[in-house]
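Case study 2.
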Amino acid sequence: MPPDIRDSLFTTQAISRKVGGTGLGTKIVKDVVDAHGGQITVDSKEGVGTTFLIRLPLRPLETSSA
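Prediction:
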């Protein structure tokens, strides 16, 4: 994956908009993962392939009861 695509991967300006998609898929995934206190990492080698790793915590996030 070229660096310019990686830079906009988790935004509403993702590359799928250019090929007929809505461009929201990776943005929605990132928002859901963030809401659950998780992480997404991307390992990409241009011309070889891209791997996404999504990590979610086993326990719910602690929230303060106000």
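The longest strand covers residues 39-45.
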